[in-house]
Amino acid sequence: MAEPFIHPTASVDSRAEIGAGTKIWINVQVREGVRIGRDCILSKDVYVDHGVTIGDRCKVQNSVSIYNGVTMEDEVFVGPNACFTNDKVPRANNPEWTVTPTVVRRGASIGANATLVCGIEVGEYAMIAAGSVVTRDVAPFALVMGNPARQVGEVDEAGNRVENRA
């Protein structure tokens, strides 16, 4: 198995677990306690907060922020500048704050500039359109878009829009 590739400008904490064949590119930061699976790609300027889990064969495009509490299963695609949150009621100083988890199931795709508000589950092979703000769970194979994101159709495993998924 191929060793992971870590670009010299990336900052990867020694306590992070990086799978074989994974490529971590320019200016990426991976914090302590992160688990990244095999054969992933983390593109330029990605931030992965402590405790995040990313499955096998995921692709995370430029400038994505993935905060503590996020779990991504295998084969998830995250488009450029997408952002995951982890705080339902953000304040600069809240000593009672706790992480609100988010789960992205196998094969889901998240479009460029999408924002995922914490506490949701994105179903397997779901498709989130670019620029969407996701504030509630997304069903498996659903196509959602808008602010707030609403289901407008269904997709198949390849991401093609379908009339009635059988």
From TrEMBL:
For this chain, one GO molecular function annotation is: acyltransferase activity
Could you tell me which SUPFAM superfamilies the record lists for this protein? Answer: Trimeric LpxA-like enzymes (SSF51161)
Q: Does the keyword field hold Membrane?
A: no
Protein keywords = Acyltransferase, Repeat, Transferase
**Which stretches are transmembrane?**
none
What family name appears in the similarity comment? Belongs to the transferase hexapeptide repeat family.
| Protein name listed in UniProt | Transferase hexapeptide (Six repeat-containing protein)
